[in-house]
Amino acid sequence: MTAGAAEIRPAGDDHLVETHQTGMPTVMVGMLLFIASEVMFFGGLFATYFNARASVAPEPWEPPPGGELDMALAGVLTAILISSSFTMQFGVWAIRRGDTGKLKMWTGITLVLGLLFLAGQLYDYSQLGFGIADGIFGTVFYTLTGFHGAHVFGGAVGLTIILARAMQGQFSGRNHVAVEAVSIYWHFVDVVWIAVFSTIYLLR
Amino acid sequence: MRFLGRAAGALVLLGLLGGCMLPPQPATEGGKDVFNLYLLVLGLALIVFVGVEGFILYAVVRYRRKPGDDVLPEQLHGNTTVEIIWTAIPTVIVFILFTFSMITLGEVDAHQDPGATIEVEGFQWQWTFNYEEGVTIRGEPGKPPVMAVPVGEPVRLILKSLDVNHSWYVPQFLIKRDLIDFGDARGPNELEFTVTEEGTYSGQCAEFCGTGHADMTFVVQAMSRADYDAYIAALVAGETPVPSGGSAECGTTISIVAANTQFDIDSFEVPAGTPFCIEFENQDAIQHNVAILDNGTPLFEGEFLNEPGTITYQVPALEAGDYQFLCQAHPTTMVGDVTVTQ
Amino acid sequence: MATTTLEPRSGTIRRSWVIEWLTTVDHKKIGVLYIVNSFLFFFAAGILALVIRSELAVPGMQFLDHDTYNQAFTMHGTIMLFLFIIPALSGFANYIVPLQLGAPDMAFPRINALSFWLLPLGGILIFSGYLFGGAAAEGWTGYSPLTADRFSPGVGTDLWIIGLALVGTASILGAVNSITTIFKMRAPGMTLFRMPIFVWTVLVTAVLILLATPVLTAGLIALFIDRNYGGSFFDPSVGGNPILWQHIFWFFGHPEVYIVILPAMGVVSEVLPVFSRKPLFGYKAFVFATIAIGLLSFSVWAHHMFTTGAVFLPFFSFMTALIAIPTGIKMFNWLGTLYRGKLMLTTAMLFALGFIAMFLIGGISGVMLASPPIDFHVQDTYFVVAHLHYVFFGGSVFGVFAATYYWFPKMSGRKLNEPLGKVHFWIHFIGFNLAFFPMHQLGLSGMPRRIADYSPDAGWTVLNLASTVGAFMIAVSIIPFLINVVASLINGEPAGDDPWEGNTLEWATTSPPPPYNFDRLPPIHSERPLFFLTHGHGHAVARDEDLDETHEAQA
Question: Which residue in A48, A50, A55 has the most chain B C-beta atoms within 10 A of its own C-beta, making it the best mutation to test that interface?
Fold first, then answer.
């Protein structure tokens, strides 16, 4: 062993340790990974749904007596949420151009649409005529839609935060990674809703 | 070297602690197939074990750095050929093991026309065995239920749970199967086996089921087809049969003492159609026995005791009627009446 | 080797020691918190083990009733897995990975702190069942319908569910952190295939945590809904499916056991080369084997369910047997590392060698269990208990101790006492085998698991007694370990930057490192940057992609 060789000699110029901000921003990587875990979480819930539906056969898969799914309302909620993804993306494009004003507007609209979705969901719950304790259909219905709703709420919290930060002028064209991160979370929540809607209302 | 000695000692100890690393001698046809598969796997395992552990011990002795040695050893990064070989060989072994497993699985899970079908109900924390003939055996705390089965014929069990998951396990059959309430999704599990030797086999629940899990035991009594039919018939008739086939259980037990060339009782009564036991104690230093005769025709002749001691006679079922019991060495002075009631 | 002063160079804000540790976001302090917390839970669950073994030493109920016994083994398993082994290895990962990458910290330091503090919270919740009428008592696997509220009323099970959900969340956040750090914060020159093996195992483990743990969370939530809101997921009496619980649980549960073992394999793969004074044999194969194990681990879950009569046996048996292949490759790579090395039998090395020896036995019993006919006999018996302890304890826990003896000098600046370490190792090793090897025979002869008592006629008494003696030996072996740690922290020999002549970057800074980790980094051209620095650039520099060649050592 060469004596004294433990003296650290960097090759070439001074290598100061720095985080690489090449490629995808760190916060975005984190958000994507988090979303991957959420996909698995909803995967678990969907597994319970499909298992329940399969095990009920040959009986029809339907709400308990007295209950009924409101297809129309669900359709409206879907439209609201899909629109909110568009508005969210408009906001992202705005801040990429450096337009903080439009960012605030689109974020605000997205937030309102998200809250409208939640309100609609709660209204739907009140009209359904069955609860979580009413057999396997009720259980998986409320669990799947309920946890989706909880994630919408989480997204709404995120939207509120970036709206507040935008109002404090914290974002610029080159520095708005939080907006990007919240936006992909919001899109994820929308995609999950499309899956939930298709499974519960369309597939039946 | 001391290290090797210590290591060898440890291995010997390991061997002792492992017992023989074998399952019980199997008492079913499927069990024999499983036992043989296990021997194959154990053999391969021992080769791998000796090889790898042996190399570790070898390396620790052979490659130990000598104090003061600062020269680096050859900096081997890998060797493609060797790495391919040691990937290929385990792959082959895996395929062999899988193939033999599937063959054995086919033998174990085979379905044939059963000689007896028994519905097993498991619940916290007891078993019920329901026979096609309408008989139900239920265990009680401290008295595990006995499942009679015929030897040499497939027996099919239908395994129903009345509450949580349980598992029906007889170690000497080398098999278990869970009792699960699947709800409406599908029917209950079934298990089939063919016992090859008469005997008594203990079993217990092998799926944790709550507070009394450790107490949920049962017994399987395998007997000849003739004995099995008699056993079931006795059950149907409402009696509690004593299982034959080597069990030490007695139903009704009569105590008789021989002292001073006299029996201590001059009559006894037993139910008809049910085997029973006589606990005979000889207190004399001369030979006595107990025999049961029907007007001079021996129905049962017990073994002689030639000195003081006790013996338990297992008397086969008798038909209703009045008979005599006596000591065949002293038939005039040691005699009494036997009443066999309906 | 250079010995540097132990004081951090930069001026730091002075805070009270307690506040500093409670509010720290420094990955090194958080790593230490993880490790210390884990060992506390290790002792708690270890005491439960001694309670269990004392009860089982001879037939008859000695001092517990059945219900208390059932709580004991439930808590033992839950705590050991979720609050000791995984957090302990996470703690080492937290401390060491940024250093090995040449990074100043983890990607998300505050989330790192959150991940830690959720652990004692979750653990306390799980244990608090004892204060509220009884802890959970359905086994760490919590099968339905036994966990339904009608069979297990009482809040202990609910606290277990909530505590586990918190612990799971902590894990998931930690995984996000680890993966991001590994992908985004490597020092210049460190390509993926120049990362230390420990980092690779942490990466694959984190991916497993990320994808498997949320499924458990979903299952736990479903169980909570069943128990408290009249849900119908798992209870057949209201239309539920008990097998669904098993599928959900084991879909998580099997990757879980690889989460437990892979970082420990990573530790062994760090320790072995250093104390053999040659590189890890087959680095790339090892990486691919690790990835293969990670992928395969998602395809085998139903081998825990062979006796349910409700799974497709050939597929799961085949995939389970397949995992033996990459595992075998790793074994052989380790042996190849020892081959013609110059072995230094430090305590860390002894634990690493012990890992290989013990994990082999656990792996062999695992291959036996992969065969459905054999599994029909030994499932739910002490054979499985033997298997799981050989891989969890003989494997992962030995890995934790190897990591402790290896990295303690880096973390504290002091060396542990080697002779005392060897006393710990040998008593531990002998006690471990005495405790668990007899369980193979107990299971083969039919002793079921999770039974509070057994019949004196069963013939199981002698082996149970031997096992209990072994368990107490393990407990005794902890004494020299604790004395060693405490005494060395107070008065141990200063370690210096690089007491072991290590290969990887954590040895290229002070012991302990300054808060920002590195003043300067050596150039990184291989997976052993410090080795090449130490042994001079006259030594052939490995070309990045091609590490198959044998290098001539130039002393």
Answer: A55
